[in-house]
């Protein structure tokens, strides 16, 4: 009799504990207690598909994650072009003047270093970069000041370039033409071209020609550039580091110039390949022979299907003018997971009686918490 009673008590405790860590109950914070507001910054470029996905996914994560520590989150959402000086300035403003506890952006490590230089306290504030792929810096040389804490939820761009090169090697194409977007990120583009060039060397291929395009180019100029390439270059085009918006324009023009017919090959980088499935635009539907490397994620899991249903609804109601069904891509999944990881760490720190929510050595802490997210295990 007594044993039974004890057992059920113990079970009850386990359940209670379980429910608090699964985050579906208010274990510490009763619902009538006032909640302290935490500001979290999101800087996204709503003119790009990826940026729009970031916005919806983070808003969904904020709704889904309930703090056990009597806090609620207010998102400070700022619309800003990707990797611009404006984004860096906005980030600094959110940190210095709006007391954000964490921030999601698409900044590069150099840009984040600049922010840390201008405000030293900001090294305590988690800044998560959601850009798709990034250059992994070489190992830190000894006797150098430590790098700023910074987490990039992205792929090593070298892997993407190796995948593209492997595809080209597979078809034995010896020379390729590279097209990329000039997003005032000149040095990044050149570094990426270098990596691609090295990878192509491994498969006995090379970049014969490369040309930058910009969304600011007038349409006749885009046609002119493509025409020049079709006359003076080989017929294997590799489109890297391009937004979906520029790619759409380029494909439209290439089609008009009959550069998407037999005899031409188009290979796209991750920014496009990862979005192709979620788009149903006429431009993308009609593309024949487009090759790309896409990041794998589990699409058959119930958790993903549930997420997708809700994401579609939210996306289409916020951006009704957008094409397609609003299916989430890897961009959305990673943004959702990144928020979840940071919120978990913040929550834990505040439960331990750190009301300011300063996460010392935060990248280690966040990286240690093995979260099984939608995009995989973090
Ligand atoms: C740096 O940021 C903190 C908040 O994170 C703020 O209190 C402080 O005033 C900022 N310093 C400067 C120089 O802007
Ligand atoms: C196209 O090629 C011609 C001749 O090589 C060159 O003069 C012209 O500047 C090129 N135009 C563009 C838009 O690249």
Folded structure, characterized:
By secondary structure, the protein is of the alpha/beta class. The protein has two domains: 21-155 and 299-377, 3-Layer(aba) Sandwich (Rossmann fold), CATH 3.40.50.2300; 156-292, Response regulator (Rossmann fold), CATH 3.40.50. Helices cover 46% and strands 16% of the residues. The chain contains 13 helices and 14 strands. It has helices at 2-21, 49-64, 85-97, 109-118, 157-170, 186-202, 219-232, 244-256, 270-276, 282-285, 302-318, 330-351, 362-368, and strands at 36-44, 71-79, 102-105, 127-129, 133-134, 151-152, 155-156, 175-181, 206-213, 236-240, 265-268, 290-292, 372-373, 376-377. The strands form four sheets. Strands 2-1-3-4-6 form a five-stranded parallel beta sheet, with helices on both faces. The protein has a five-stranded parallel beta sheet with strand order 9-8-10-11-12, with helices on both faces. A two-stranded parallel ribbon has the order 5-7. Helix 4 (109-118) links the parallel strand 3 and strand 4. Helix 12 (330-351) crosses helix 13. Mean pLDDT is 81; it is low at 1-26. The protein binds 2-acetamido-2-deoxy-beta-D-glucopyranose (NAG) (2 copies). Residues 95-96, 99, 119, 121-122 line the site of one 2-acetamido-2-deoxy-beta-D-glucopyranose.
Notable characteristics:
disordered N terminus; 2 domains; 378 residues; Rossmann fold; 13 helices; alpha/beta; five-stranded parallel β-sheet
Q: What's this, in brief?
A:
By secondary structure, the protein is an alpha/beta fold.
What portion of residues belong to β-strands?
15-25%
Bound molecules: 2-acetamido-2-deoxy-beta-D-glucopyranose
Uncertain stretches: 1-26
Question: Might you state the CATH topology name of the largest domain?
Answer: Rossmann fold
Overall mean pLDDT stands at 81
Radius of gyration: 23 Å
Count of alpha/pi helices: 13
| Tally of individual domains | 2
CATH architecture descriptor name of the largest domain: 3-Layer(aba) Sandwich
Helicity, as a percent range: 40-55%
Biggest sheet architecture: 5 strands, parallel
SS elements, strand count: 14
Q: Give me the secondary-structure category.
A: alpha/beta
What do we call the CATH homologous superfamily of the largest domain? Answer: Response regulator
Please identify the top-level CATH class of the largest domain: Alpha Beta
H/E element string? Answer: HEHEHEHEEEEHEHEHEHEHHEHHHEE
Strand adjacency order, main sheet: 2-1-3-4-6
Protein name: Glutamate receptor 2.4-like
Keywords: Membrane, Signal, Transmembrane, Transmembrane helix
Domain Receptor ligand binding region: 57-353
Subcellular location: Membrane
